[in-house]
Amino acid sequence: MADGLRRLVGAESGRVLQEKLESWYRDYEINSCDQNLNRCCEIIELNSQIQGQLFTILNETSQEGGHYAGVETIKTRLLPWLGTCFSCATSERLFETNLSLTQDSFERERQLRELASSQTFQLQELQEELTSTRLQLNHVQQDLKTSRAQEKDALRKLDRLNDYEQQIQILRDEISILDAQKSVLQSRLARSRSPSPRHSENKSPSPLPLRSCSPGRARRTNASRRACLVARFGDIYAQERLDAETLLRTYISDMEMVQRIIYIAAVESFHAAKMAYRQFKIRVRETLSLGHSGPESLEDTVLDYIVRHEDLYDVQASVNEVIRSMNINPKISFPPEIDFIVISTLIRELCRVAFSMQTLIPPLDIAFGTDGELFSETKYHRSFDSDFTAALVAYHVWPALMENDVVIVKGEAVTKRGALWSHRSRSRGRSRSRSTSPLLSHHLSRSRSPSPLRSGSPSN
Question: I need a labelling partner for 385 at 20 to 30 A (CA). Which of 3, 50, 183, 235 fits?
Fold first, then answer.
């Protein structure tokens, strides 16, 4: 027995067990679960070895005491301890159950981690696919923008090509006219050179060759010019009229007076433009009649010349005439420090449109209107501040555009009850005498160099 105990003491198994327990206690918090379980298993194995050696020493000691020595000690201490060991079997089974449950939970956690990692991987793949799809969509949008830009460029080129074709057609028409005039001049030159005066006295004069009166350029472009001028008349009503109205409101607080001024400016502009057109046409006819010998009639030639040379129209002279007429008109008034020259932009555009409308076949003109006349639904729209139950026109806002007594663009008028009576009382009470402002006199005294047609001599 003493040898076995000596070997147990010499092995220092108890001290090693204590050191392992202290080391495990120190590192328990920083170790992983597997490391802690390995430490525990090592301590259990060391403890079982020590217990095996102690049971060997217990057996040897009991044999040295004889058959009855140590019986009481075994009964009171060893047997109860062994009973508790057997009862601990249940707790060991419970420990095994807990261990299996722990292993199951670890397995589930591992499966969950694998599932989470697989879902994360799938999510990354979906994000990559989404990114690639967005890139493809951006490329498609860029291609679509490029194709739209190319389409717009092609449309612009097509419009430009159409313009070129129209210009080429116009040039061809002019070339054909010049060729015809050239052939007529050559035939005249040949006739003037071939016969002598004596022979021409004996021979009977031959009749002039018949000329085919083909339509000129003005007649061919009449429809397109008419549509453009009607549209321009509407644009002036929508844009330049409102600009002039806003400008006049800074000087005149009475809205009715502002609208009357604009309407009279439109009427006087058409009148001045028509007078200028008649004078211009007379000068052109006198000039072209001296050497006219083309396939077209003289009237068509005159009209073609006016259409091609509308820039020779002295629009400033018409503007000055309109302002002069407005200064002596008793229906309108204006502050003495300001002149009607402030709306010269509106007057100039109206004069240009009215002059161009006289070159149409038939020409366009504005409708005649007087205050107090019976309102006509075919000629005018009622303004928003009108009395819609009134039958008489108080005053006009914008004239109607006519073609052979047929309204093609309606004007605008204000209707009120008692319009005729208020118009008469206002006409009696208004007196207006104004001197021309220095700004207007400067514009009226402007001298412009006359064109060859205005001077009466044709240009070579």
Answer: 235
